[in-house]
Each structure stands twice: as structure tokens, then as C-alpha cells.
Specification:
By secondary structure, this protein is α/β, with parallel strands linked by helices. The protein has two domains: 124 residues, Rossmann fold, CATH 3.40.50; 193 residues, Rossmann fold (3-Layer(aba) Sandwich), CATH 3.40.50.300. It is built from 13 helices and twelve strands. The strands form two sheets. A six-stranded parallel beta sheet has the order 3-2-1-4-5-6, with helices on both faces. α1 runs parallel beside α7, α4 packs parallel to α5 and α8 runs parallel beside α9. The chain is globular. The two termini are 28 Å apart.
Length: 356
């Protein structure tokens, strides 16, 4: 699903009100990391005046302001909802700032499950002002069930998986695809979540797709890019999480990847929002490979760690420890780059048939 948009770069004000942080405002953190030139300010009265780098390790020079009026001085074109609220519900207190943004002619980019285009007040106001409401999570209307249609394609498909949500699957997928392109692969990041779509400009947010159509939605994304040499597909949730397993399983079956990159955050022993222990690396590898094997050849090729908040020395020790424990190449793609992962994928690479 390709998103049509103005060719001019966005100038984003990202709304995080009271929730600014690496894990509490994942959308904001990722946009600031990968779209810093398009981010003009963060709107968060609780953290106004703080240094973004102290909070997120990225964002040097981007101001945190208290009000939209302050942000207007930076000539924004868009207000972006920068957090994923519980259940994807819009906080009632945010309605006023969204109306204020519309009144000033700003596009509103919304990754919540609450669709602004279906809100009568927002829709009327936006129509009157000629403003776009982009509900990023809204799926296409013409999806179908999965047809096991991609497992025979000649490209290499890599899916990022893990033992929990919010653990680094999106960042790993973006970093791997970027690193692969830099080394000459014809590679593309495939977005399956709202933030990834905002970064890539295309994709389908699979967590709002009806359960029967999840694998079909992912098949569509892959088939639209079937001529790419390498597709790095953004994982969602985990097949082991009681809250998100259905989405994760549909994604796995729809992508039919030959390789998985297992993502984890050192020190996370319990799944987010549930009193469920995170399984061992051995269990995670076994579960994912066993689920995939009856339908298509698939193996965990490498481990990507999210060592946010750790020193470089501590992160390096953890990477080395995990590599020894699993017997797989391991890295933190942000801190140390993706070379070990690319080396693990190289033997699976399918020669390009494109003319040179």
C-alpha cells in the first residue's frame, strides 16, 4: 500500500504530552531518530526545555516546547501523534490541541486506533480548513486472506521477531535494510506498523487488520516488492505474547521469510504489561523455527540486541555473551552496526536477475 503525499518534506511537531521517552513514546523516538531533518519540535509541557538527547539518545538541537503556539514559530506543516496509548484511544485532553493544529492548517498524522477521519468534529473542521487527516493505521478496504503466495518468490525475505513488544524489531529492520543498501544489496524495509509507515511512507498496519486477513495483507506488501533482492519486514508483537500472538503469527505466515532476526532487550525478564516471564533464547529460537517449518524453510540467522541505556563496554560484553550462548552472530545495530547480521544473510542471498 503506497501512501500518496506531497513531495515537499514534512515539518513535524510531535505530540507526546507527558510521555516523552524511548519506550513511552516509541513513535516520537523513532521519527526523531530517522526523520530528524523533518522534526522541528516536540510538544510536551512536562518535559519542555529538556535536552532530547538526555531522554532519547537522539534529537540534538530539536526543541521541546510547552504549547503548539510556541511550536508554530518553527513553521510546522504537520502535527504527529507521537505515542501509542493503551488501546490506541485518543486522550480527551488532546482534542483541543488537535483542533488548534487543524485551525492553523496543519496536517494531522495519527497512528492511534481512534481514526480522526471518522470523528465528526475533526472531519468537519479539517474539511473546512482544507487539512489532511492521515489515519496511518487504517487498513485498505480490499484485503483478502493469505494464499501462501510468496514462499516461492526468488528474493530473500527477513522478518524481525522477538519475545515481547517494544523490544527493537522496527529499528533492527530499518537498520538492516539501510546497511544492506549501503553494501550494494537491492533492499527495502517493509513497514507493518504505524511508525514504520510514517518513516517509510508506505505499508499496512497489520494490528488493525481483521484476523483472517493479516497474512493476506503481508502477502500484498511482499508481492508489491517482489522484484527486490532483499525485503526486511518489520515484526510486530511476538507469537509468545498472550495479547499479540495472533498478529505475529499472521505476519510470519504472510511473509514466509527464509531468515529471522531475533530481537531482544537485555535485562527484560517479564513481558510488557503482563506477569509473564520472557523465555530463554533457546526457547525463542525453537518456537519460531518450529512454527514456520511445516510451511516453508526458515531459521533464526542472527540476534539483534537493543542495548539502550547501556555503556558501550557493557553492551559489547552482552553482545558477546549472547553470541556465545546462542551460537549465532549477534550485534546491537545502533551501537555496533549490522555487519554480523549481513554476513549471516549473505549465504542466503539470491543472485539478482535485474539487468545491469
Amino acid at each position: 500500500m503506497r501512501i500518496e503525499r506531497n513531495m515537499e518534506p514534512r515539518r513535524m511537531v510531535i505530540l507526546t504530552e507527558g510521555s516523552l521517552g524511548t519506550f513511552s513514546s516509541k513513535t516520537a523516538a523513532s521519527l526523531i531518530r530517522y526523520k530528524p531533518d523533518e522534526t522541528v519540535a516536540v510538544l510536551d509541557s512536562v518535559h519542555a526545555g529538556r535536552n532530547l538527547e538526555d531522554l532519547l539518545e537522539v534529537g540534538r538541537g530539536i526543541p521541546v516546547v510547552s504549547t503548539l503556539k510556541e511550536a508554530l514559530a518553527f513553521r510546522p506543516t504537520s502535527l504527529v501523534i507521537g505515542i501509542a496509548t493503551p488501546g490506541g484511544i485518543l486522550p480527551a485532553a488532546w482534542r483541543a490541541v488537535i483542533h488548534e493544529a487543524i485551525e492553523h492548517g496543519l496536517e494531522v498524522v495519527n497512528g492511534l486506533h481512534t481514526f480522526f477521519g471518522e470523528d465528526e468534529e475533526f472531519a468537519r473542521h479539517a474539511e473546512r480548513k482544507g487539512v489532511r487527516l492521515w489515519d496511518v493505521r487504517k487498513p485498505p478496504d480490499d484485503l483478502d486472506v493469505g494464499r501462501h503466495a510468496v514462499h516461492g518468490l526468488p528474493n530473500l525475505r527477513v522478518l524481525t521477531v522477538g519475545a515481547d513488544s517494544s523490544i527493537g524489531k522496527k529499528i533492527a529492520a530499518i537498520e538492516i535494510s539501510r546497511a544492506a543498501r549501503e553494501t550494494g544489496w537491492d533492499a527495502e524495509f517493509v513497514a507493518t506498523g504505524q511508525t514504520g509507515i510514517m518513516i517509510a511512507g508506505s505499508g499496512i498496519a497489520v494490528d488493525t487488520v481483521a484476523a483472517d486477513y493479516i497474512s493476506g495483507a503481508v502477502e500484498r506488501l511482499v508481492l508489491e516488492r517482489k522484484d527486490r533482492e532483499l525485503l526486511v519486514i518489520e515484526g510486530q508483537g511476538t507469537v509468545l505474547h498472550p495479547s499479540y500472538s495472533g498478529v505475529s503469527l499472521g505476519l510470519l505466515h504472510g511473509a514466509a521469510p527464509q531468515a529471522l532476526v531475533l530481537c531482544h532487550q537485555p535485562g527484560r525478564d517479564v513481558m510488557r504489561n503482563l506477569p509473564v516471564a520472557v523465555p530463554s533464547y533457546e526457547e525463542m529460537i525453537h518456537v519460531h523455527e518450529t512454527i514456520a517449518r511445516p510451511l516453508f524453510p526458515c531459521r533464526v540467522a542472527a540476534v539483534s540486541l537493543n542495548c539502550f541505556g547501556m555503556s558501550m563496554d557493557d553492551a559489547r560484553r552482552e553482545v558477546d555473551r549472547v553470541a556465545q550462548e546462542t551460537g549465532l552472530p549477534a550485534t546491537d545495530c545502533v551501537k555496533f552496526g549490522c555487519d554480523p547480521i549481513l554476513e549471516a544473510l549473505e549465504p542466503l542471498k539470491v543472485p539478482s536477475t535485474k539487468p545491469t
